[in-house]
Amino acid sequence: MTQLTQLRVYRPAPSPAAPPSWEWLLTPDNGQGFLEINGTLYKVTEFGFTYDNGAGGRLWKLRKADGTEYQLTQTADADLACDCPDATYRGRECKHVLAVREAYAALDRSDRLGRWLAAMETPADVCPSHSADDYRNKSHDAVPMPF
Predict the structure, then answer these.
(1) What does the pLDDT read at residue 70?
(2) Where are the domains of the chain?
(3) Considering only 48-52, 93-97, 123-127, which range has the smallest mean pLDDT?
(4) Is the CB of residue 68 less than 8 Å from the CB of residue 85?
(5) pLDDT tens digits, 68-92
(6) Cα 134 vs. chain centroid, distance in angstroms?
(7) CA 63/CA 47 separation, integer angstroms
(8) CA distance 69 to 33
(9) Which of 125, 120, 123 is nearest to 139 (CA)?
(10) What is the dihedral of CA 31, 36, 38, 44, to 10 degrees?
């Protein structure tokens, strides 16, 4: 009588996706913009929604020119999940998640910097005891930046 044993299949952890290159070709306005990821143009549409528990969430639809569409969802723990094949079948963060996270973080940094600079008219507004040349030559104490 032959005895069968159960085989264990070794599956290594998925390697992370390569960092994507991205560029906003049109920054989001009223929830829509155009983002290029690794040379492919996507129309980005952002939606807000509410989970059953009352927590707010976000959904991004990324649509390519050929009509292919991927959805990124902000999970309840503020992580991003994508429904593209790379994220679905490899179980890792895909280029869409990495690019959208970085692109929106850059918009946030840019917005904060813009508000901070708009509040400052001259370096003297930051520290009246230093001239603009002091700031250029870094011969002053560090000024706290908003980011």
Answers:
(1) 97
(2) 22-123
(3) 123-127
(4) no
(5) 999 999 877 778 999 999 999 988 8
(6) 35
(7) 14
(8) 15
(9) 123
(10) 20
Q: Rounded to an integer, what distance in angstroms lies between the CA atom of residue 95 and that of residue 107?
A: 18
Q: Give residue for tokens 């560090």.
A: 142
> DSSP letter string over 71-85?
EEEE-TTS-EEE-SH
Q: 130 and 54 in contact (C-beta within 8 Å)? A: no
Residues 2-35 have pLDDT tens digits of 665 666 665 666 777 788 999 999 999 889 999 9
Q: In terms of pLDDT, which residue wins out, 137 or 38?
A: 38
Neighbours of 111 (CB within 10 A): 13
Q: How many residues does the chain have?
A: 147
Q: Could you give the CA distance from residue 123 to residue 120 in angstroms, rounded to a whole number?
A: 7
Q: What is the spatial distance between Cα 141 and Cα 73, in angstroms, rounded to a whole number?
A: 43
Residue ranges of alpha helices (H) inside 10-131 are 85-90, 95-119, 123-126
Residue indicated by tokens 């009588």? 1
Given a cut of 50, is residue 64 above it in pLDDT?
Answer: yes
Residue 133: which H helix or E strand, with range? helix 132-136
**Identity of residue 89:** Y
